[in-house]
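Annotated sample (chain length 832).
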Amino acid sequence: MQQKRWSVLNIIAALIVLGATVILAARGIASLPPFGPTFNPGTGIWNMAEDAKPVKSETLHLKGLQKPVQVSFDANGTPYIHASTDHDLFMTIGYLQAKNRLFQMDLMRREGEGLLSAVVGKAGLSSDEFEDQLGLLRTAQAEWKQTTANNPARQVILAYTQGVNAVITKDEQTGNLPYMFKMLNYRPALWQPVDTLVIQGVMTQTLSFTTAPLDYALLAKTLGYQRTMQWFPVVPTSVQSPYDPGPYQQQGITSIPAQQQAQAALNVQSTLALLAKIQKLPQTAIHYDSNSNNWAVNGPKSASGSALMAGDPHLKQTLPSIWYQMEAQSPNYQFSGVSIPGLPVILIGQNQHISWSITNTQNQSTLYYQEKTSPAHPNEYYWNGAWRPMTLLHYRIPVKNGPTKNMTVKLTVHGPIMTQDGQTMSVWWAGASGSPDLDVMLNIIKASNYPQFKSALRDWVAPTQNFVYADDQGNIGLISAGYYPQVKAGQPWLPLSGTGGEDVVGTIPYNDIPQIYDPPDHFVFSANQRPVSASYPYYIGTSLDAYDPGYRADEIYRLLSQGKDFTVQDMEKMQNNTIDYQAQLIVPKLVATLTQQPDLSPQEKQVVQLMSNWHGNMSTSSVAATVWTWFWSEYIYDTFNPWFQQDHVPQSQDKNIVLSPKGGTAVTAVLSEDLAQWVINDPTNAAFSLPDGTTQNASAVMTQAFSATITNLTKSLGNNVSGWTYGKVHSQVFPSLTNIRSLGTAPRPSGGDPNTIDASYGATLSSVGPSWRFIMDWGTHQGYGIYPGGQSENPLSPWYDNQINAWWKGEYYPMYMGSQPKTVAGTWLLEP
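Output written by the structure step:
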């Protein structure tokens, strides 16, 4: 019977791979391999079914272990690792991650090291060129070279590397490499310590590299500087529920620069070309929807009186997931949570005494410099009163089925030159300085109280993160750790002068960065909002540099401030909340305006009645949610598009007002925030009027936008208003990292939007949202978590996408730290 079952699985595997091959050929994402090796009966892709067999209890031998290690797997494939030495713990983690996610790990290191073209052909060339310029590999190599022999992080990485290479070596010997290596016809190189640091850099780049100064420069060049700073101010006009409201101290360095200053010269076409180049990067390379939530309560806000904490990072939702869950114990470490494949430690989770989660602070971490160059001084730039030689680095980028690309990267004191097409622009990025993040995480994992937790975070550099904290003594806190670049002079939201007068001079002193500990109102929270009030004395970024408009934070603040006696179930309900706070603010204004209109059609009156009874819930069954989403998009467009067209601001062809391929989301979000503030507080703002002098106010444009919305919905969904449900126009998908459609999920009706706590990003189709939900109840010392995916990257594995349905229903699985899971699927005894 068992043999028959696996024969069926082999047939399924064949069908999947056949379909995948056809899709790969149609999409052209890579050159297909010779069919012989791929379909070899002994070592070809047929082995993916064998590799997908359920885990059974057995003894395995792993060369390099010091002592036996026990690994128990729960029903979802989460490993519970019990090791007698620290070395063996981290070697086992490397072994398990490689067993489950080797292709994902190889893909991530190739992306960071500029080696995608070697396996996918010219489709990866733009990414490789960009990464060679930015220099994630250079940073990782320098960081590893500086790591001393007795550094704990070095020992952890070396042990982890042993574990990964044990899998690669055995898979090579047995012909059992994961199926995608066979599909693309290449073999993974042995893992190197710098590969782990590169993957750390890939995540740093994803969360902190931006194009905001280029976007600002183009806006100022077209809209004019004054209007740009009115619509995209340094400090937003709305109060975004800052978690650290002050009072603040200042220990020098610098203060917020003046906004009124002449703009430097800018080559528009060169800047657009650079932005277009960045657009071609893999979708995970720069993530403008990298938002998240976290919060904690204690005292009277908690039903138990103990600390209660929750966190849900919003990232690209893929199969396999970005996260790998595990529980681990050794003499000096005990932790439970989620790691990123390629990294040997958890980033979110708990130990015996504390728990933590993270959201992206989203301060400005990327600066652009216009270097002074001259044809009379080739490969030189003018800095601090003298001409200096650029550092020239030569790269050879192998391209599968194509000629090798030769490339020269030029470096200045500020960083790599990204373009010399009409202007010489270099980039300074916090991630390029190297960051001892692994050392920090190891110290966090060993911390037992807030002083130790805060001390560990002092060395965190990038990406800047809001670390929420809770412990077994009932304490809570939040600290936005990382590097906040401060410049000598100039306006860092625009490209700066590269001649030396506007260089980076340091960061905000650690005790002055946003933070709070055991506040009197007994709760802390962050949701990518600006973490401080307008009176904060340091420059940390602008409204356009990806700070969230703050509506998720407003909703979290509302719920936490009004509630008390919170339980785990309350935290679960909050994480799955689909109330749009912005809609709650604006819809009453919309209804009040429309009820004064004498010539509404019967259909429009029906919709107004629906809206008047709606409370902002973006559920799949809601008609009002559909009307709100389409109306607000139309309202933004009708208000700003006349000005964008008059001033020739670069835009996309649809109604998503966008400055640049990668800046569009941030641009539209800021305009949305502006519009909401004007509707409430400034309904006669000049932006409502037309460039030709025609006077309009908020109500006039609102009425026009509503009428267009009803017309468009009728054309798209029919005359029956009751059929305009949100689930028909908004869905969620979990794509495969391979870009093979059949290995991802089909679109599924989905609620939520960017302003809801259970966030969903994308006007019609979303693949970004809560990538991991975590709740820690220190009243019972019990953690709960879930992510939409599975532990394995093998599509035939029962652990490929098995947690998606539970995640979708808002369910959670208990996390058993320090004990065996209640249901054990199998146990491995790893012996030297």
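Annotation: The chain has a mean pLDDT of 90.
Annotation: The CA atoms of residues 32 and 184 lie 6 Å apart.
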